[in-house]
Predict the structure.
Amino acid sequence: MNIADIAADPVNDVIVQEITIKAPAERIFRALTSPDELLQWWASQGKFRATHVESDLQPGGKWMMRVEGSCAPGTSCTVVSGRYLEVAPPHLLIFTWLREEEDDPETTVRWDLHEVDGCTTVRVTHSGLTTEKMRTRNGGWPLIQVLLQAYVEQHA
Amino acid sequence: MSRPAISKHVRLLHSAGLVVTKKQGTASVCSLNAKPLRLIGDWLQDYETFWNESLHGLKKFVEEDR
């Protein structure tokens, strides 16, 4: 792979994580979209906790979440909001993700749910992270992604 | 890699604040300034941790609810 390929490859500005959950996709989709349920699980003990959620679950509908504690990424309370781009229960949910800090880019979060025999693989894909950040910080220089990739892989 | 190509790369690194250049006679000595990379690394690392912990919270919640 040469430098131009890496720089042009949008895959490099994405965080992808997966987990397998012993539950049907429908159950998980509900946990991902119901404000009541989101408040119950979207937290990490001693680190961050969702304290308020609003959700207009339809394409174009708005959502917002208040997170308190040492929430990520950052150190204090923050408000994250966005719009639903795709709502296809129980397999796909895509929404934009914008933290209220003024220099943060609008990014995209995608949930893919794949159910086999009552177990569901849940994949979350957070994209738009580095390219936007780079545009803000370095005037749109794509080569930095190469360095970034090397750095991130080295520290993985 | 040709000399002009090297100069071009160094200029880019310099403009991104990743390299500091010092003149020593006819030679240019470049050193790495990793601070901007660390900012990006922190930013990604924070989100990595955030999603990892969120997924585990989701799993625990859904599985215990059954």
